[in-house]
């Protein structure tokens, strides 16, 4: 870990001591947003009971946060070029913290939902530009290690959220889950003011029309996926899908004409960047689908309790935490495309083993299979993210970061919705749906292999400070 904060002659990025403090800011900001979602899931029954609403309505406490956050990722990434990433990150932490206080003080579901939407906006501001700030803070020679650290933080947040939520609810009421974010968020804000580097703003206008189409496209998509994930496959979902497709067509049409596009389509002219985006989306489809499928498999078909189910999931994020930093470090030395492809192969092996898991399997038999999946995903994620970020000029890092965050969220949501369709259509045991995840992972491997062809896979040299 100490090598992450060493300074060598000719390094770009921040000097070692300043880098350490800036990384602490990014870690805190990411953990606040990631833990919030998984932690609040545990509290939904209590929120429904105390506010006197059905559980189906209380679900919106989580869903609205996720929809707003996902819909605003591209917009926030582009906006950061005008106001600077430093100011946007600080503003995001401020909005998130104050909205957490409002959520803790809410006395009705409607009031709580307003503040949760604002929390989603604050989270979007930090998550959309987090990876690009890692590239700004770390020297180019350590970009893979930085992406490994980012993967470690996200996996740690997902792993600790349910446990932290359960521990808090064991001693106090659900408003304290939101209140905990306030001092941590304000501390991160103060540190961000001190530590995050200043940078010049981009001159020119903002693509407001593109922003509106982007929000409509993503909001309709995530609302549709959320509805499908909860078993709704009616005409409302069809209308949302049509709305998303129509808005998407108008958005991309606008991007070709705008003088300062929200999403510069020139990013996708770099083939390795485009392939990394496709691979990432397919891998997150596989992960999102498997997470939900295993929840039903362990509880409904294997008879495990919710607590035991959570424990059976634990090896997945834990092995990501172990493998992520290692694979990121290796990606600074050898071809990241080869590393991420190897990780996908391990992930596919793990998914196949889960699809063949017998209903009477022992706990140990389940644990090693999820651990194999986590190991594969951990080896894949950091090198692929390094590949994505290193293939664009530094001036476009914020846009690439927004694409990375959006693709991750879209892939996970699509995977979750796929399980909803499977269950609604009564296509058989939910375990069979994991073969769909295997197919998505197989496609990801094929796309990733395209990057390892001799003409496409020279070792990636560190970017120069002038990129």
TrEMBL record:
What is the annotated localization of this protein? Membrane
Membrane topology, record value: Multi-pass membrane protein
Q: Which GO terms describe its cellular component?
A: membrane
Which InterPro entries does the annotation name?
MFS (IPR011701), MFS_dom (IPR020846), MFS_trans_sf (IPR036259)
The lineage is:
Bacteria, Pseudomonadati, Pseudomonadota, Gammaproteobacteria, Oceanospirillales
Sorted keywords for this record are: Membrane, Transmembrane, Transmembrane helix, Transport
Key word Transmembrane present: yes
Q: What is its main location?
A: membrane
Which protein are we looking at? Answer: MFS transporter, DHA2 family, multidrug resistance protein
Any Pfam family matching the protein: MFS_1
Q: Which organism is it from?
A: Aidingimonas halophila
């Amino acid at each position: 870990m100490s090598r992450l904060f060493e300074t060598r002659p000719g390094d770009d990025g921040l000097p070692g001591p300043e880098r350490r403090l800036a990384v602490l800011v990014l870690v805190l900001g990411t953990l606040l947003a990631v833990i919030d979602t998984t932690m609040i899931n545990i509290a939904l029954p209590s929120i429904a009971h105390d506010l006197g609403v059905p559980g189906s309505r209380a679900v919106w406490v989580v869903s609205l946060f996720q929809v707003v956050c996902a819909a605003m990722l591209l917009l926030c990434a582009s906006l950061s070029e005008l106001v600077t990433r430093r100011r946007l990150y600080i503003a995001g932490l401020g909005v998130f913290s104050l909205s957490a206080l409002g959520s803790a003080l809410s006395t009705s579901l409607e009031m709580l939902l307003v503040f949760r939407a604002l929390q989603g906006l604050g989270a979007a501001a930090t998550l959309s530009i987090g990876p690009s700030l890692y590239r700004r803070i770390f020297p180019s020679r350590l970009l893979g290690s930085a992406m490994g650290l980012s993967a470690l933080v996200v996996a740690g947040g997902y792993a600790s959220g349910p446990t932290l939520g359960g521990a808090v609810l064991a001693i106090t009421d659900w408003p304290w889950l939101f209140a905990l974010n306030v001092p941590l968020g304000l501390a991160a804000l103060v540190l961000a003011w001190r530590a995050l580097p200043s940078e010049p703003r981009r001159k020119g206008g903002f693509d407001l029309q593109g922003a509106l189409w982007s929000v409509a496209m993503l909001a309709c998509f995530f609302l549709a996926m959320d509805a499908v994930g909860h078993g709704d496959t009616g005409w409302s979902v069809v209308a949302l899908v049509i709305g998303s497709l129509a808005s998407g067509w108008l958005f991309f049409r606008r991007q070709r004409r705008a003088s300062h596009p929200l999403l510069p389509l020139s990013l996708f002219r770099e083939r390795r960047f485009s392939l990394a985006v496709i691979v990432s989306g397919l891998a997150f489809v596989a992960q999102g689908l498997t997470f939900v499928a295993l929840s039903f498999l362990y509880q409904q078909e294997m008879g495990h309790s919710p607590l035991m189910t959570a424990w059976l999931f634990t090896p997945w994020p834990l092995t990501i935490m172990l493998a992520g930093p290692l694979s990121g470090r290796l990606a600074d030395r050898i071809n990241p495309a080869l590393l991420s492809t190897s990780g996908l192969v391990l992930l596919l092996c793990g998914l196949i083993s889960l699809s063949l898991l017998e209903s009477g399997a022992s706990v140990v038999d389940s644990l090693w299979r999820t651990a194999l999946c986590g190991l594969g995903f951990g080896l894949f994620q950091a090198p692929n993210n390094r590949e994505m970020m290193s293939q664009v000029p530094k001036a476009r890092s914020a846009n690439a970061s927004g694409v990375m965050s959006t693709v991750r969220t879209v892939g996970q949501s699509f995977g979750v919705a796929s399980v909803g369709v499977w269950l609604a259509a009564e296509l058989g045991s939910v375990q069979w749906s994991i073969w769909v995840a295997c197919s998505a992972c197989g496609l990801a491997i094929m796309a990733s292999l395209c990057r390892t062809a001799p003409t496409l896979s020279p070792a990636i040299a560190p970017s120069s400070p002038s990129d």
